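User: Could you walk me through two proteins back to back? I'd like the raw sequence and the structure tokens for each, with a short line separating them so I can tell where one ends and the next begins.

Assistant: Of course. Protein one, sequence then structure:
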Amino acid sequence: MDKDLPPLTRREFVATLLATGFALATQPVAASTIHTDSTGLTAGTVQIPTADRQIPGYRAMPSNGSAFPVILVVQEIFGVHEHIKDVCRRLAKLGYMAIAPELYVRQGDVASLSEISDIQSKVVSKVPDAQVMSDLDATIAWAKASGGGDIGKLGITGFCWGGRIVWLYCAHNPKVKAGVAWYGRLVGSENDLTPRNPIDIAATLKVPVLGLYGGADQGIPADTVERMRAALKTSNSHSEIIVYPNTPHAFNADYRPSYRKAEAEDGWARMQAWFKKYGVA
């Protein structure tokens, strides 16, 4: 560290770190939890320069080789905790550079909050979409500068809160080759921080997005999924939505009771095929 710079405050130092293990609100962790090792990978926390500060992120990629296709991994409401890190390692085992930037870092630490309602009200509700778009832009720039990633083969995937962001980022950045949104909210209230929702960009979307949704999701009404599907048909993006019958929200979250193995594995296979079909390989 530069000796002329003032020392970091404790809060500033904590904001350079990622959560260790699983977010407190997700405890206890289910027996179905998948752990992907880092054998053959370069994996760990990185610092990503953004418009106003550095933010931490988790990066995983093969140890040998270069110019890997890049996939942005967008967190659930629980931030970049162990599950999101594991998703990055799974993608790295497939030959990708996978990067999950911590997108709440300015607003607070969600990993230490024990109630989902507190995560939503105290942190997530204060995160501007514009900030998220800018941080994802910065993450791509970091991937390019790192020399390990080929941003000409760029994809994005995200879960829950991150699923909504996938739709919006694909509208924001037409250079993305393909996106996969896992159970992201499609319709919602609009305000200065979240001025648009996926339904608002569906008709003009250019990037092909695959949406993976549960038919029994209590937080994403089936009629909103059908409205999104109908709106996508008016665009030229070739986007699609798959709905798994009798399947709850967060069916890919193997560390939670909502996990549905068959649907999660099918969705994972569809995601891989989607990325390959549209040049993220």
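----
Protein two, same layout:
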Amino acid sequence: MKKVHNFNAGPCALPQQAVDKAIEALKDFEGTGMPVICVSHRSKEWSAVMDECRALWKELLNIPDTHEVLFLGGGASLGFLYVAMNFLEKKAGYLETGVWAKKALKEAKGLGEAYAVASSADTTFNYIPKGYEIPADLDYFHITTNNTIYGTEIQTDIDCPVPLIADMSSDIMSRPVDVSKYACIYGGAQKNVGPAGVTFVIVRKDALGKVSRYIPTMLDYRTHIDGGSMFNTPPVFSIYVMNETLKWVKEMGGVEAIHKINKEKAALLYAEIDRNPLFKGTAAVEDRSIMNVCFVMAEGYEHLQDEFMTFAKERGMVGIKGHRSVGGFRASIYNACPVESVQALVDCMKEFEALKK
């Protein structure tokens, strides 16, 4: 198979051992004689996978008993509506740090009063707002911890006077999280914890049931808590691969160990961006994401963008084109992206520099 370095923003690189196990399970799942995509979700073999996956989430993130872990469909985009449906009674505040935060806010506005407490739209979302105050009369405050398009990240758990809700689609399991500080954490799996098709939710049980509106059955988190994430047929294959991915995280030493590696990978790439005169980073240095590294050609070298893209692709770099809304380059270096791939990209940038200086 052709050797490539996968920097796709999602779906993205997954641990090879998780991929290999998935291939085996597509042939014969746990000796059932059936592929995992054909077994009953009510079977004992499948129930064991669900139980193990939920237990791994709780273990790896030290999730307290006050919170429940759910596996749903619809991605974080449906999660935007789930959040407003379950938590918005009178007024909600959002930290507007990018496209996905704006989309989350839009869904909330459709159900009640919701607004941006602070925003970094003034400079195309290249920083995380600071110095803002969170009003104490909010039903909840919503943040998007990592912004894949712009390469910014909130890397600490903020203190919040109201229920805190976070879309952690692209940085969950990449760093330790104090789950007790959040009323709800949710996101699509297709960055760090599995393939597309399953959405994770970590919700504090006593935070639910506070709104007076009717919540459609499928949009009520309590429905899925009561049903053990199997009120309807769950996305079995995506959950299976998620479970194998979490096993890999545990084998790597857990989230603390993964975080250390992630910081090292990001430091390696940012150091080259800052050193190399042909490139420059686009996110504020203090807010740089360790998941999505965004950069452009430096002033005077803009004409080399397409040439570098071709140069990099010829050397096996996949998925480094920036989001269509901002252009430039983006290297997504999620958990399963190996340091060898980051080093290969750095070497590629150095080689290109040597040819053009």
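The chain has a mean pLDDT of 97.

Let me know if you want the two compared in more detail.
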